[in-house]
Amino acid sequence: MNATSIMGVILGLLGVLNVFGQSNGQSQQAPLSPAPAVVTAPKANKPAPTPGNYADSYAGDEACGVCHREKVETFHQTDHYLTSKLPDKDSILGKFTPDRNVLKTSNPELSFRMDKREDGFFQTAVQGIAPYITERTERFGLVVGSGRKGQTYLFWKGDQLFQLPVSYWTELGWVNSPGFRDGIANFDRPIIPRCLECHATYFQSLPPPQNRYGKAGFVVGITCEKCHGPGREHVLRESSKVSGSPDSAILNPAKFSRDRQIDLCSWCHAGHGVALAGAFSYRPGEPIDKYLKLPEPDPNAKVDVHGSQVELLEKSRCFQSSAMTCLTCHDVHTDQHDLSVFSQRCLSCHKPETAMFPKLDHQAASNCIDCHMPRQETNLIVFDWNGKKARPQVRTHWIKIYPATTQPQ
Asked: What separation in angstroms does the CA of 207 have from each of 7, 8, 211, 240?
C-alpha cells in the first residue's frame, strides 16, 4: 500500500468514528473541560498569540459554562464533544475482564490482549507458541470515536502518535483496526495532523515526522472554541464591568454567510483534502480554501458516505433549490438522534398537501430520513475480522428518492 492509500485509510477510520455518536444511545454526563489558559486577567508581559496559533487564546469549556452552563452541558453529550478523550474506565468501551479481553486472529500464533492496570490501560500483541512467546505492549494514550459506531485508540512513542492495532466496534467488540491485516501485529501506523484536526480542538504540531506533537496543552474533543473561535478575550471582556465593547470577541457560526457556514463544516465533513497551511490554523468564518484544498466537485464521481457529508449534501436537490446549510437540520449543541426531529425539518418544505410531497404511501411522515437518506456501507472503512470483511453503515447526506431495494426493511 502506498503512502497516499495509507493516509486515506487513516482518515477514513477516524472520520467515520467522529460523525456518529456514543454507544448504545447511552448518554453520560461528561465533566466540563478544564480551561487550558488563565482567563481571570491578562498578564501584562504575556506576548500576543502567534498568528494562526491560538493555543494561548483558548478559555476552555469551563469558562464558557459560567454563562452558558445549560448549553455546554447538553453539548457535552454530543458526538462532536465525545469524539476524542483521555483513556479511563468510562471512555474505553471495550471490556478488560479475562473472558472478554482477548482478540484472536487468523494467525494461530498471534493474539491481542487488553489489560487494565493501576497505571493505565494496555494492548499487548502475543506472538508465538509456548514456551517461545514474544510480547509487545503499548499503553492507551488517546481514545478516538464517541462509540456509536466504534472507537480506535492511539499510543504515544515519545512525542509521536501511532494507532493501536486493535479497535472496538460496538456491534462486535474488539476487532482489528480498520485497514489492518488480520494476523499481523502492526504498531507502525502514524497519526497525521489532519486526523487530529477533525477529532480534537487543538494539538501543537511539531517539526517532522508528521506525527510529532506537543504532549502538553492539547485539547481533546470538539469543544466550544472549535467552532466559535478562541474565547479568552471574549471571557475577559464579558467579565469586565467597564468593558462596554460592542465587539464581543467571539464568533457565532449561525450569523456566518451560507458559504462560510458550509466552509466550517467542510473542515471535517468534506473529505480529508490537502493542507495548505499549518495544522489547526483554520479560523471559523474564513474561506476554507485558504487552508485546505478539498476535492473538486465532480457530478459523475462516486462519493463515499464516510466523512463527505458536505459533498453529498451539495448534490441534493434540496440543497441546490434552497438556502439550506448544515445548521438547517442540525442543532450541534444537542445530541440529535431522534429521526422524527429531522423529519420535521423536511416537512417544513415538503407539505403533504403540496405537489412537492410524493404521492406514494407516505403514512410514516415521522421518518423521512431512512428512505431519503438511507444508511449505506462505506468502502473506505473495512474491518478484516474473523476471516471476512466487515464495513460499517453510514447515513448518506445525498437527499433524494432511492430505489426500494436500498431502503431499510
From this structure: 18, 22, 9, 39
